[in-house]
Design brief:
The protein contains 1 helix and 3 strands; from the N terminus they run ββαβ. By secondary structure, it is an alpha+beta fold.
Length: 89
Amino acid sequence: MPDLGLHPLGIELLLNGHKLCAFSIWRYGWLELRVAVPGTLTDAAEASGEFELEIRADRTWQPRPTGEETRDDRELSIAVCNITVKSEG
């Protein structure tokens, strides 16, 4: 994602359609993020047995949108790894 310093990337985290948090990424590198989940959301999700975590970015980027031989049409944004769920009980 080019120009993060000038144009920070907006991120939202949602659990089962409810916004947990929103923040901006303004520099390159790995970020460790801990997000508390309200008990009302975990209780409802546990009752149904389903959790859906949605990560939204406010824009994407195409590395090489032109040039037939080297074209890269992927829409890139952020990389995510090591999602861990911990119970505080």
